[in-house]
User: Fold this.
Amino acid sequence: MITAPVSRFARSLAGVVCLLAAALPANARAAGPPSAPAVPRTVSAWLPYWDQENAYQDALRHADQLHTVSPFWYKAAAADRIEGHPGAGDARIIGGLHRAGIDVVPTVMDMDTMKPGALAAVLTTPALREAHTAALVRLARSHGYDGIDLDYETIASTATPDYHRVRSAYAAFVTGLCAKLHALRKQCVVTVSPQTDTTGRIWDYAAIGRAADRMRIMAYDLHWSGGPPGPLSATSWYDGILRRATALVPAGRIEMALPGYGWDWPADGSGPARHVTWKQAEALRREVGAPYALDPESGTPHFTYQDGDVPRTVWYQDARGTAVQLAAVRKYGVRNTSLWALGFEDPGLWKVLAQQ
Assistant:
């Protein structure tokens, strides 16, 4: 089994402990009570490039809980080319996060960057897959990064004839990439969709769990912008996701990625939803005078209001809802969580996550 690279924070802390111990007289070191272990950092979070400064300051405020920040900075443009979003590779942000003891593991995504089927062709063609792996390794070695987070969500549909071939190819690609990153003492993180009886099957959880340091499950958008209104996540849904995931991947390698946002739909589902952060959702609720209501079945707050002649409904997530849903996460021994995304969330969420 591959051992995860030692974090920058752990290395720094170990060095400080050794220096302090050496400075004490031998009898003082021997006579004193054992030191209390440091509280482990159990949270990672994505940093959105479109709200970069706000998200960065949010990360610094919660550095004692964050082990990893993944700036949402890069996109796969071709087999041999990774392109950056605005602000990618910002040295000030990378340096500031490192000084705070946080590893920087940028995300590479594939949404809206390649023609349909292009990424599947890269994965299933050995020469193209090798070129893509090399491009990602080059990125990981740049800017002092601590690894790479792969967020490839449009690989193939379960309805295509190539589904099983692409699934196997992606597992082989992840296995090879993670091995090369580990040889450089870099982390390999893989972001996946929730796997249920009908969704998320493009990812071979068992193979990814063997290869990657952490597998991040995007446990949100149970109801999404293009569908009917409803909760973004639900306690029973989390239970089903983790029952399957922990049967295939050790709990210590799983991160449950939680929502810090919501959607604002036409109440009849007649159109797409508007994205709202927790702050925007709460401000709107207070503005329209809607009472706070936590759906007992899903563990998600929601409210309705009138926008001119159009009734609308908002489902979102806050600290109280997360506290309810985390019971299902604890049940399966998963302690590590991720947040989508920094700057979106209820500030009270951090206290809830500290108890996870």
In short: The radius of gyration is 21 Å. Confidence is low (pLDDT under 50) at residues 1-37. The first strand starts at residue 43 and ends at 48. Residues 163-183 form the longest helix (21 residues).
